[in-house]
Amino acid sequence: MTTHAPHASQSVTLPASLDEAVAALTAMPAAVPVAGGTDLMAAVNAGLLRPAGLVGLGRISEIRGWQYLDGHALLGAGLTLARMGRPDFAALIPGLAAAARAAGPPQIRNAGTLGGNIVTSAPTGDTLPVLAALEATVIIAGPGGARREIPVSHLLTGREMLSPGELVGFVRVPLLHAPQTFLKATGRTGPGRATASVALVLDPARRSVRCAVGAVAAMPLRPLEAEQWVASLIDWDGERGLVPEALAAFGDYVAAACIPDPVPPQDGSEPAALPPAALHLRRTVAALARRALGRALS
């Protein structure tokens, strides 16, 4: 699991159920849950983390699949990115499948899990903007068989945190049967960490467009005004097309909302210009948002 020798006092527990895992974490608050370990073991190997114990989640079969429930998909937190990238899952939630396929090389996708992406909340986590755009909710397992459900955005932004002994067990995602797109830009050719990503979901039933931008901030950003503006331009009862000028304006609107201009000084002088790196990032986000909406409408 790691190239470093573990401390002699370190313990490893391998529960067979979600409630057993919660009980193990409750009994040893300093222990750390681990599923794929793609981020955890990197931190251990870098000397940034020395957990007193590990609670392995790999044997908990109940969180490694999914089921249908009242117009939603209930996804186990132990679903691997590789499994979510397969065609049967892509037919269910295409945006999430696209993000899973883009998450990195095969060894990362085979080990990394949906729940790990959420709990780690790395800014470059590819599934996070999709979950934000889908307005998914997280089901958290707690001591004594307790379950509570919160919007995934609350967890990602830190509005609600996991309490001691709690685990992310499932993710509830609405089945929209509508176009979903995910695009990302990296600083290299082939799989890599996103410098910017955009998830876009059309919701014809609510006549809405939902967009989330990842990797440009500590959490996915929702440009709500841009969403409402472009939704008002779409002919939901017709062909749902937009002229190129509207697509370009949407991209610029999203980018400006996520990477705003510097605040003008209080003395009334001219505000500082965005540095070249920020301008390049803004152009990247604009291009991704424009293309994502264009693909969703095509």
Automatic annotation (TrEMBL):
SUPFAM superfamilies: CO dehydrogenase flavoprotein C-terminal domain-like, FAD-binding/transporter-associated domain-like. InterPro entries: CO_DH_flav_C_dom_sf, Diverse_Substr_Oxidored, FAD-bd_PCMH, FAD-bd_PCMH-like_sf, FAD-bd_PCMH_sub1, FAD-bd_PCMH_sub2, Mopterin_DH_FAD-bd. Pfam families: FAD_binding_5 (PF00941). Gene3D superfamilies: 3.30.465.10, CO dehydrogenase flavoprotein, C-terminal domain, Uridine Diphospho-n-acetylenolpyruvylglucosamine Reductase, domain 2. It comes from the Bacteria. Keywords: FAD, Flavoprotein, Oxidoreductase. One of its GO terms (molecular function) is oxidoreductase activity. This is Dehydrogenase. It comes from Streptomyces noursei.
